[in-house]
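Exercise 7b. Backbone tokens:
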């Protein structure tokens, strides 16, 4: 596994996403067995970085993640857990309540990273950050970040946070360069902020092409692994693919160790 260190925090370059674990926007108990199997599989393979949110299966993804961690007997300190507060809960008391609920569902007394999941239209973030800063001071949250923030909002969040903004979690993949075009990636790289790439394999619909296929063949890897390797070889970029399939879960983890040449990186960027 490769790691990124910014400020005083070290994070595995590839973590495990939990959107669809336990349901979509609502819990779906029928999915519990496959969801728990996927989480067990991820922990067995060696993932230590998990990404979740209060909205995922309306909190049930957090419950299942907490349960899988307990069932596997993994020490809390060995893990890096991110969760997120939703845009409807950005008032002072709501943020504190949301965080407490996430901690209870996960069965932990702190989050490694807590993000604002989405900006709120016309949103002002002063009172949100008053609450987030308190959570850090109280030790309930170790680090703060944001998600889906454009450059202007990212800079605003930096000015309101008492501790460094550790990440902006945004869509980024071979198929989606919108946060390169809007300047967020470059700003993150220049300012010690991690860009956490979500939907890194384009929700499984990665567009293939001859370059990607040839590079995959040369490394005896899948196109999905090359797509992940391309992301994590970029400075300050980390990613959080999700899968229910044990083979994909292992392949995604192993993708961190694939070493692409500078020429291959350029070819993929330009393909
Ligand atoms: N902050 C936000 O607003 C936001 C938004 C979206 C997502 N996220 C986070 O980012 C995580 C990742 O995004 P995502 O889950 O939407 O998309 P993703 O990881 O790009 O794609 C997941 C899909 O790709 C397939 N897949 C994964 N690895 C594969 C592999 N090696 N080979 C073939 N297929 C593979 C999976 O199918 P199988 O199960 O069949 O492998 C699954 O259907 C989420 O789980 C969530 O934690 C955050």
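Sequence design result:
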């Amino acid at each position: 596994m490769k790691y990124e260190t910014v400020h005083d925090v070290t994070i595995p370059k590839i973590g495990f996403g939990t959107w669809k674990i336990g349901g979509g926007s609502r819990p779906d108990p029928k999915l519990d067995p496959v969801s728990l199997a996927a989480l067990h599989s991820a922990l067995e393979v060696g993932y230590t970085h998990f990404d979740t949110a209060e909205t995922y299966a309306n909190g049930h993804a957090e419950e299942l993640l907490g349960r899988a961690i307990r069932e596997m007997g993994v020490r809390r300190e060995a893990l890096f857990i991110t969760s997120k507060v939703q845009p409807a809960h950005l008032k002072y008391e709501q943020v504190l309540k949301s965080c407490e609920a996430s901690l209870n569902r996960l069965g932990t007394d702190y989050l490694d990273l807590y993000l604002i999941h989405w900006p709120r239209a016309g949103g002002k973030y002063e009172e949100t950050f008053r609450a987030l800063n308190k959570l850090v001071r109280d030790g309930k949250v170790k680090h703060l970040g944001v998600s889906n923030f454009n450059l202007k909002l990212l800079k605003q969040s930096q000015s309101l946070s008492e501790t460094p903004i550790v990440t902006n979690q945004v869509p980024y993949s071979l198929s989606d360069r919108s946060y390169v075009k809007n300047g967020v990636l470059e700003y993150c790289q220049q300012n010690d902020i991690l860009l956490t790439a979500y939907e890194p394999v384009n929700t499984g619909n990665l567009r293939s092409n001859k370059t990607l296929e040839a590079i995959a063949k040369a490394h005896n890897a899948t196109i999905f692994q090359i797509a992940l390797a391309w992301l994590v070889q970029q400075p300050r970029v980390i990613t959080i693919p999700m899968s229910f399939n044990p083979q994909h879960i292992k392949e995604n983890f192993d993708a961190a160790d694939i070493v692409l040449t500078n020429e291959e990186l350029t070819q993929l960027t330009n393909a």
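Instructor comment: The beta strands are 3-6, 9-12, 16-17, 49-51, 80-85, 111-116, 141-147, 165-171, 194-198, 237-239. The mean pLDDT is 97.
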